[in-house]
Please model this.
Amino acid sequence: MTKQQSVKEITQLLLTDTLSEEQLQLLHMDERKGVQTALKKYLNRKEKAQQLETQFYRMLQYEQKAYQQGKNIVVGVDEVGRGPLAGPVVAAAVVLDKDVYLPGINDSKQMSRAKRESFYEQLTTSAVTYSFGIVDNQMIDQINIYQATIRAMKQAVAGLTHQPDHLLVDAVDLSDLPYSSEAIIKGDQKSISIAAASILAKVKRDNMMAELHQIYPQYGFDQNQGYGTKTHLAAITKYGITPYHRQSFAPIKS
Model:
């Protein structure tokens, strides 16, 4: 590492992440502004990567505990769509490989659409097995949203190609299933398997609502996903409801 190297060359070297501590110390002493800017960006990237790694392994604690108990097929289960005025409730169940490393995975609600879709692609290609459970608005109206959520989750678990040893579920009691299980409050922020299920369910449901938008564009389902936004409520007032609205939900039922 010498001053004969240009700022551009040093920037490229920093992107490769192959410099030794001694070389980095030399860069700290390089007075060129461009070098210091590149070094600061490098250090910020390293810090962010370390934070994501720490978060990932913290979210692996429930899975590791199950593995230590001899439970090899650990299933994450979550749902999306309890609150909307239209559309189904969608649950996902997923089994991740024991050696998976997905830094940055988190509750789907805390991620941008682009990041969710990126993780969705990774999960659908790398998961050991995954499955969806979908309960439509008509069944939600018949049995209530809580029971519909349980039904969707059980459908998702039943669709897996591997028999579960243990279920990690986001805040819903599925203890009547013939597998050990844990209902974890805010589980999509505490378990990588539940976070993965939340991403799968969210992207799946968003795609379904985008398809409904093609049929009923006036309701903005591609943007509101069926939730009761001001524009959605205004559309209901103006156009009435669709066959996909939940008639047991306020303000539709009134």
